[in-house]
Specification:
Cofactor: [4Fe-4S] cluster; S-adenosyl-L-methionine; Mg(2+)
Strand order of the largest sheet: 3-1-2-4-5-6-7-8-9
Enzyme class: lyase
Helix content: 25-40%
Structural class: alpha/beta
Keywords: 4Fe-4S, Iron, Iron-sulfur, Lyase, Magnesium, Metal-binding, Queuosine biosynthesis, S-adenosyl-L-methionine
GO molecular function, one term: magnesium ion binding
Number of strands: 9
Radius of gyration: 17 Å
Shape: globular
CATH class: Alpha Beta
Distance between the termini: 30 Å
CATH architecture: Alpha-Beta Barrel
Pathway: Purine metabolism; 7-cyano-7-deazaguanine biosynthesis
Length: about 210
């Protein structure tokens, strides 16, 4: 990577683009709605059950001009979801400014492990034990999506719920490989604690990206 490209990446004017695709949102509050996904490379949170581990090494994904990402996105949808990897490893100011200038609704899916940058219409926070969110992301989260892999994760979920704002929507979602085991546990927990909602990875049931 040349020094010029590194400088553009540092400014957020280029971003390591892993993939981009138009599909149906599968999880959380906006499930079932059409959206254009921008998946950025780079993540050092390291969840052992991550289903996109190929996103972790940013160097595997070509630095792409932000304006080109925006030009492609606007062909498909006015709702954009930026995901990763961990998108907040990069400065999101240029990307969100350009998307908003095109009149788009801009959402982010993040672990919150890095300081928030960019301007967002919806923040989906999915905190991870290995690298907890910054307070700034807790403060603005619209939805909290906690992944339930085992029974210990219910305690973690409650700890995270105590840190977000009072209007944040709370979700528990089974880790895909543990769905058969953990869905009954989650259903029982939510019925006893109705401030929570159940989230499922419906796109996997629909067999879409």
């Amino acid at each position: 990577m040349t020094e010029e490209v590194k400088d553009l990446v540092n400014k957020g004017e280029m971003l390591p683009l892993m993939e981009e695709f138009y599909t149906i949102q599968g999880e959380g509050f906006h499930k079932g709605t059409a959206a254009y996904f921008i998946r950025l490379g780079g993540c050092d949170v390291g969840c052992h059950w991550c289903d996109v581990k190929e996103s972790w090494n940013a160097e595997l994904h070509p630095p792409t001009l932000t304006k080109d990402i925006v030009a492609q996105a606007k062909k498909y949808s006015d709702t954009i979801v930026v995901t990763g990897g961990e998108p907040l490893m990069w400065d999101m100011t240029a990307l969100t400014t350009q998307l908003k200038a095109e009149g788009m609704q801009v959402h982010i899916e993040t672990s919150g492990a890095y300081e928030l940058s960019g301007t967002w219409d919806w923040v989906c926070l999915s905190p991870k034990k290995l690298k907890l969110p910054t307070q700034g992301v807790y403060d603005v989260a619209n939805e909290l999506k906690t992944i339930i892999y085992n029974k210990d994760d219910f305690k973690f979920a409650e700890e995270q719920a105590a840190r977000v704002g009072k209007d944040c929507i709370l979700y528990m979602q089974p880790e895909w490989s543990k769905s058969d085991k953990m869905i009954p546990e989650i259903v029982d927990y939510v019925m006893k604690n109705p401030k929570w909602k159940v989230s499922l990875q419906t796109h996997k049931y629909l067999n879409i990206p």
